[in-house]
Design goal:
Elements: E1 7-11, H1 18-28, E2 34-38, H2 41-44, E3 51-55, E4 58-61, E5 66-69, H3 74-83, E6 90-94, H4 101-110, E7 115-123, H5 127-132, H6 137-145, E8 149-153, H7 160-173, E9 179-181, H8 189-192, E10 215-222, H9 228-237, E11 242-250, E12 257-264, E13 267-275, E14 283-290
Parallel strand pairs: 1-6, 1-7, 2-5, 2-6, 7-8, 8-9
Antiparallel strand pairs: 3-4, 4-5, 10-14, 11-12, 11-14, 12-13
C-alpha cells in the first residue's frame, strides 16, 4: 500500500518561504491528490475555496487532497495518512524552521514510504547572515547539507551581483547540489516532484515549462538496452544545472521489464516496473534544468 505513495520533505530555516511554497503547490497543481503534513494550520492559511471540511487536526480539500496537523506528533499524523494511502498520489511534509529535514525523511522511510526528495528553501537576503549566526548557524548549514535540491527564494529582493554571490556561496558549501533560483515562489512542479509513473504505453508525458527562459527540458531516447553500469555513470555525471530527471529505462540485465528512473541532485533510483508492451521497449528520460544555450545532452552518455 505505501510503496506507491512517494513523499517529499520541504525544509529550510524560519522565514525562508516554506509555507508560501506549500500554498503555491496546493493552489496550482492540478490532477494530483496530495496529502500534506504541516506544523500549524494557521500558518498555512489554506485558501477557503480549497477546504471541503475541517475536522480537528485534519482538513479535507476539495481537490481530493488531505492536510493533517503535526500537533499530536508525527506518528499520529502519518497513521491518518496511511489509512487512506491509496487515495493520494504523493505526500508532502513541511518541516519546522529549526528541524533537520534529513531526520524527517528518515522517519518517513521507517514507514516504508519511498523518499522522492528533500527540498530546502533558502532566503537569498538572509542565508549568509543566518549561517554566520553563533546560535543558529549550525542548524542552517546542516539543513543545506541535507538538501537534494536548494530552492533560493526572494531573488527579486537582491541585486544580480548579490544573487550570484549567494549562488557561489551555496555551491562551495553544497558541491553538486542543484540550485534553483525563484522569484515570488514560482517553481514548476515538474522540477519539485519526481517518481514518474508508467503510462499505458510506458512513455513519460512531454514536459512543458511555462516559465519564460529560466528552465529547459531535454529528452534522451535509446531503443537498445543499456547496462546498469551505464546508468550509474549517467547519474554520477549530472551537474548542478540539472534539477530533475525522470523516465523509463530499457535495462540490459532485465530487458523484458520497464524500469522507472528518477533523480534529483545526487539522489537517484531505478525501480522495476511492469513488463514492456510489444514494440514499446526503449529508454526515455526527461531532464529538466537551468537553460543552457550551448549544452545538449547526447544519448551516447548512457550507452554501455
Amino acid at each position: 500500500m505505501t510503496a506507491t505513495l512517494p513523499f517529499t520533505v520541504i525544509g529550510g530555516y524560519l522565514g525562508a518561504g516554506k509555507t508560501t511554497l506549500l500554498n503555491h503547490l496546493l493552489t496550482q497543481i492540478r490532477g494530483q491528490r496530495m496529502a500534506v503534513l504541516v506544523n500549524d494550520f494557521g500558518s498555512v492559511n489554506i485558501d477557503a475555496s480549497l477546504i471541503r471540511d475541517h475536522d480537528g487536526d485534519t482538513i479535507n480539500l476539495a481537490n481530493g487532497g488531505l492536510c493533517c496537523s503535526l500537533v499530536n506528533g508525527f506518528a499520529s499524523a502519518i497513521a491518518r495518512i496511511l489509512e487512506r494511502a491509496d487515495d493520494f498520489d504523493r505526500l508532502v511534509i513541511e518541516a519546522s524552521g529549526v528541524a533537520d529535514p534529513g531526520k524527517i525523511a528518515q522517519y518517513g522511510q521507517m514507514y516504508e514510504l519511498p523518499l522522492d526528495s528533500i527540498l530546502v528553501r533558502v532566503d537569498a537576503e538572509q542565508i549568509r547572515a543566518q549561517a554566520d549566526n553563533v546560535y543558529v548557524g549550525d542548524t542552517v548549514l546542516r539543513q543545506l547539507e541535507q538538501a537534494d535540491l536548494l530552492i533560493v527564494n526572494k531573488c527579486d529582493l537582491v541585486s544580480d551581483a548579490q544573487r550570484q554571490e549567494v549562488r557561489y556561496w551555496l555551491s562551495e558549501r553544497t558541491p553538486g547540489t542543484p540550485i534553483l533560483e525563484t522569484r515570488y515562489t514560482e517553481a514548476p512542479h515538474e522540477i519539485l516532484f519526481g517518481h514518474a509513473q508508467p503510462t499505458a504505453a510506458f512513455m513519460p508525458a512531454s514536459v512543458r515549462l511555462d516559465h519564460g527562459d529560466a528552465f529547459q527540458s531535454w529528452t534522451l531516447e535509446k531503443r537498445d538496452p543499456v547496462s546498469r553500469t551505464a546508468i550509474e555513470r549517467f547519474a554520477a555525471d549530472l551537474g548542478e544545472e540539472i534539477y530533475r530527471v525522470k523516465g523509463f529505462v530499457h535495462l540490459r540485465e532485465d530487458p523484458a521489464r520497464c524500469y522507472v528512473y528518477q533523480q534529483v541532485g545526487s539522489r537517484w533510483s531505478l525501480e522495476p516496473g511492469p513488463i514492456w508492451k510489444p514494440v514499446t521497449a526503449q529508454t526515455t528520460l526527461v531532464m529538466i534544468g537551468r537553460r543552457q544555450e550551448d549544452w545538449k545532452p547526447d544519448i551516447v552518455e548512457i550507452t554501455a
